[in-house]
Amino acid sequence: MSKLYIVPTPIGNLEDMTFRAIRILKEVDLILAEDTRTSGKLLKHFEIGTHMYSHHMHNEHKTVENLISRLKAGENIALISDAGTPAISDPGFLLTRACVENGVEVECLPGATAFVPALVNSGLPNDKFVFEGFLPDKKGKQTRYLALAEETRTMILYVSPHKLLKTLAEFITYFGEDRPICVCRELSKLHEENVRGTVREVLTHFEKIAPRGEIVVVVGGKPITKEPKKSKFSAEE
């Protein structure tokens, strides 16, 4: 029976590629890649000669029907993104949903993703957390911030380097300057950096040192204030 494989790829360090991922990519009939040029370098490194087909946010709505037909016809297909696990702030959801709706088996391999090591590295509570990915650019942004301002769980966001300073300034507006955060930069790469502190402290750091590379921001949730216990004796007593 044909199958769609969701295959994570390294977010930086090529040693994070799993043996199983390499085997699957060699065995399938077709690899769907977000950017065939970027993925071509990865496949060449691991001597994978499987044919690639471009599958990204700009064409995935148009290609899903054809891909479902190919899967139903008996082909095995693997989906990869430029880095990390497909469908996590990358293309993949539409095709996965279509497979489920059409009775095509889907198997997601465990592997690299940026937000898990960022969460663990942060030192912030990780028993309960919410993954936000990229915040809206304009429409709906304020509404999202107002909701997140009341969020008590640890929050994880993806932020592009050229928007980091503006985003940290917005954090001060909506979360307060003393909210604990951790900015994780270039995870698994040579210049990996984890900057921890209050929003104000981290903003000051990056005002002096321009942020570069892939960035994950982990934000502490709103502190839960406990109401004082009421005395079992009334004031009159």
TrEMBL record:
This is Ribosomal RNA small subunit methyltransferase I. It is an enzyme of class 2 (transferase). It comes from Flavobacterium psychrolimnae. It is found in: Cytoplasm. Catalyzes the 2'-O-methylation of the ribose of cytidine 1402 (C1402) in 16S rRNA. InterPro entries: 4pyrrol_Mease, 4pyrrol_Methylase_sf, 4pyrrole_Mease_sub1, 4pyrrole_Mease_sub2, rRNA_ssu_MeTfrase_I, SAM_MeTrfase_RsmI_CS. SUPFAM superfamilies: Tetrapyrrole methylase. It comes from the Bacteria. The gene is rsmI.
